[in-house]
Design brief:
With 445 residues, the protein is of the alpha+beta class. Helices cover 45% and strands 8% of the residues. The protein has 16 helices and 10 strands. The strands form 3 sheets. Strands 3-2-1-10-8-9 form a 6-stranded mixed β-sheet. Strands 4-5 form a two-stranded antiparallel sheet. Strands 6-7 form a two-stranded antiparallel ribbon.
């Protein structure tokens, strides 16, 4: 179990010497051990058991001494976990290390999608024993049985809160769950060329996209319907505006035509472009920002203002930094530009210097990120590691200790871009190509 040492954060105001890549890896290995001990249930002997392969959002030591674990948006986190494992697999492969343990974890994580789909209807008291995969899934299936496995006293999960409540819309699919999953599945498609794994990616992507497509009689709608109650979970007004993007993502991940309800028409393509170009119209867009930017990164599809997606992502995230100084970030979603170039390469001439990401990795607290209120005083890790995750930096008041999946994801992406010999990212290992790159180097030094 984690023992959090509440020490004065004096080091945060003191210059820190640059850490080596070896130090970043050592930190990664510590976070990895911590993650599998305290923030996820995984058993090599029974990798497909209920509640497995679903990352804990945060772990909290309460004032009464009890340990509380909290899960939410389980499939969203699952997607990022899958992406981290895919990149870890590639890093280990390139450094001729044993990839089998990572591969087993990845297989179990992918199987979790189907497990959550098979059992979903039972939470609305469907007693059928001949269920089929249909794209209607649970966000998590965490039960009290996980307490012993993760040495916790109290569990809070969507399954525990909502399963068995017929009128509940909790613990059901939403298209933001798909956003995180698209990232993970795309990285598996890129880096794990094992036929059965590739087939899993196609099947899961098909379920995610088809689960948002409903046909009632002759009417076709982009919405999520509970097949047991026939009640809408997420209506067309919420999903339909991204139908072109969801279709293109389905096409990309499955290599099949996933179009539905005129989703490939110029009108819906223009609507998607409108969203990309006006993403910052809402100062507190949060998840909408992440949805548009993450899909853009995976599809290598960008709005106006730059000639390629990587540069567009950098520009957009810099604009969010200026718009939201309260988030205390030097970059917003720093992993997304790296995901883009790992998937699609880079044809521009303004790659961020290695120091931009070294600053993030170096700043990560040795014990892991946290936020607590003690004797009316806030004790927390320092920016940029002061929020629940770099994936959702607006959650900067969540009390507890965080899973550091974001560090592990970012480290693997950083290593593959700046330290590997992958051809698609060779520009990131070259000297600065122009004045802009030199300015970037000075900015992050």
């Amino acid at each position: 179990m984690i023992i959090l040492l509440f020490i004065p954060l004096l080091w945060s105001n003191t210059p820190v010497s640059a850490q080596s890549d070896d130090a970043f890896l050592e930190k990664y290995q510590y976070y990895q051990e911590r993650f599998y001990e305290d923030f996820i249930y995984y058993s090599a002997d029974n990798p497909f058991s209920q509640g497995s392969s679903l990352p804990v959002e945060y772990r909290r030591l309460r004032t009464d001494g009890k340990v509380l674990l909290y899960w939410a948006d389980g499939v969203w986190w699952l997607g990022h976990y899958v992406g981290m494992l895919a990149m870890e697999y590639q890093r280990l492969k390139l450094t001729t290390q044993d990839t089998l343990p990572t591969l087993r974890k990845l297989q179990a994580a992918l199987a979790t999608y189907k497990r959550l789909d098979y059992v979903a209807e039972s939470c609305w008291n469907d007693t059928s024993t001949s269920r089929e995969l249909n794209g209607f899934y649970l966000r998590d299936d965490i039960t009290d049985e996980i307490k012993k496995k993760l040495k916790a006293d109290i569990l809070v999960s969507d399954y525990i809160r909502h399963c068995g409540k017929i009128d509940s819309k909790g613990n059901a699919p939403s298209h933001d769950q798909a956003w995180g999953s698209y990232i993970g599945l795309a990285l598996v498609k890129k880096f794990v060329p094992i036929p059965e794994i590739q087939n899993e990616v196609k099947e899961i992507a098909t379920l995610l996209v088809r689960g948002m497509q409903q046909q009632i009689g002759k009417k076709k709608r982009w919405e999520i319907i509970n097949p047991v109650t026939n009640q809408p979970i997420q209506k067309q007004a919420d999903i339909g505006w991204l139908r072109y993007a969801h279709t293109q993502m389905g096409n990309y991940l499955t290599e099949e035509d996933m179009s539905f309800a005129r989703s490939n028409t110029q009108f819906w393509k223009d609507m998607w472009r409108l969203l990309q170009n006006n993403i910052l119209i809402d100062k507190y867009g949060n998840f909408n920002w992440y949805g548009v930017l993450s899909i853009s990164a995976v599809l290598n599809d960008h709005g106006r203002g730059e000639k390629n997606c990587y540069d567009w992502l950098i520009k957009r995230t810099e604009q969010i930094v200026k718009k939201r100084p309260d988030l205390e970030q030097s970059m917003i979603f720093p992993h997304l530009p790296l995901v883009n170039v790992l998937l699609h390469g880079y044809e521009g001439n303004k790659p961020l210097p290695k120091t931009a990401y070294e600053a993030y990795l170096e700043a990560a607290p040795e014990e892991g990120a946290f936020y607590y209120v003690i004797n009316d005083s806030i004790v927390r890790s320092t920016p940029p590691w002061h929020s629940l995750s770099l994936f959702c930096p607006w959650h900067n008041r969540t009390v507890g200790e965080y899973n550091m999946l974001d560090y592990m994801f970012l480290y693997n992406a950083y290593w593959l871009v700046y330290c590997s010999d992958l051809k698609q990212v060779e520009k990131f290992r070259q000297e600065p190509l122009d004045a802009n790159s030199e300015e970037n180097n000075e900015k992050y030094e």
